[in-house]
Design a protein that fits this description.
By secondary structure, this protein is an all-alpha fold. It is built from 13 helices and no strands.
Length: 334
């Protein structure tokens, strides 16, 4: 017991001064073998095991840091390699152009596929316009008929105007095909250009008749500011096609006046037709003929006043060219 008390006193005095090894030596010389062995074993349990555990934990953390650093270095190498490859592609000329061309072709193919799906859905949706009008609901019905889920209407962020634009585009293309057949793609001379214009506008407006009841809704959609550019582009392109196949190859003041005048008359006749209750819209076609005659007389009057003609020429020229540039339209034909 005396030996044990001696050991305890020595520990209290020396545990903050002597290191662990010195304390072990002191205990070995002052205590008997049994006490020394027991105490030494106790100290090993208190100190050595936590130290080894900390060493193992630190090793694991070090491994994690090394792995992280290795991954980041690999990513940097990959990024540098990608940048070098892109720079090399830009300087290769034809080779790089080929790769870019391939990518463009792939993107064009994807866009063509999307456009094909849109067109099929809108074609099917046209059958539901008499019931649902020019609305998103008609598009949903068309999508479901084509086997697509109703949520596919998200492909048409413009809503019902997508139907109106699709309808106008198809009707314009159909009319142009008819004019091409009549004139052998513009090669045949038109005997009566005025009558040709009247008949062309009449054919185009006749295509609206199946949707006459719902057409005011379509006109309201066309008049919205966010749709103005698309609607105006379709009108300007159509009147230019009609004038071209009528034999108008002029590059003077008449080029602008005829196209702007024709677009105005066509829209006036369209509004008149919505209110016309005469059989086969006979009054509408009479209205169209009278407006065209008046336009010819007005052009003849302007041609006799040189100063006024120049003023109108500058005005029409500026307005038409500005609209064409804003819409990105081109009228050169080859």
């Amino acid at each position: 017991m005396a030996n044990v008390r001696c050991v305890q006193k020595l520990l209290r005095l020396q545990k903050f001064v002597l290191p662990f090894n010195a304390q072990s030596c002191l205990l070995a010389t002052t205590c008997n073998a049994g006490v020394t062995a027991s105490f030494h074993t106790l100290q090993q349990c208190r100190t050595l095991k936590p130290t080894s555990a900390l060493r193992r934990s630190y090793a694991k953390e070090t491994d994690k840091l090394d792995d992280f650093r290795a991954r980041e270095e690999q990513r940097e190498r990959e990024r540098d390699a990608a940048e070098q490859a892109a720079a090399a592609t830009d300087t290769q000329g034809d080779g790089g152009g080929g790769e870019r061309g391939k990518t463009s072709e792939e993107e064009a193919a994807k866009q063509a596929k999307v456009d094909g799906i849109r067109s099929r859905i809108l074609d099917a949706a046209m059958l539901h316009v008499p019931q649902h009008g020019w609305t998103k609901q008609a598009i949903i019905q068309g999508a479901e008929e084509c086997g697509y889920p109703s949520v596919v209407h998200g492909m048409f962020p413009e809503g019902g105007f997508a139907l109106v634009s699709h309808f106008n585009g198809k009707c314009n293309a159909q009319l142009v095909q008819q004019l091409q057949l009549q004139t052998n793609n513009g090669q045949l001379e038109v005997n009566d250009p005025l009558d040709f214009l009247v008949q062309a506008v009449r054919q185009r407006l006749t295509m609206i008749e199946p949707y006459k009841t719902q057409w005011p809704q379509a006109m309201a959609l066309i008049a919205q500011p966010q749709h103005a550019s698309t609607a105006l582009a379709q009108v300007l392109t159509l009147v230019d096609d009609i004038c071209y196949y009528s034999g108008d190859r002029s590059v003077d003041f008449g080029w602008y006046t005829r196209r702007i005048g024709l677009a105005t008359i066509m829209k006036m006749t369209e509004l008149y037709m919505l209110q016309d209750a005469s059989p086969a819209h006979a009054q509408t076609w009479e209205f169209l003929k009278n407006r065209m005659d008046e336009a010819v007389q007005l052009q003849m009057a302007l041609s006799q006043t040189e100063g006024m003609t120049q003023t109108f020429s500058r005005s029409f020229n500026s307005a038409f060219i500005t609209a064409r540039n804003i819409l990105g339209l081109g009228y050169s034909r080859h």
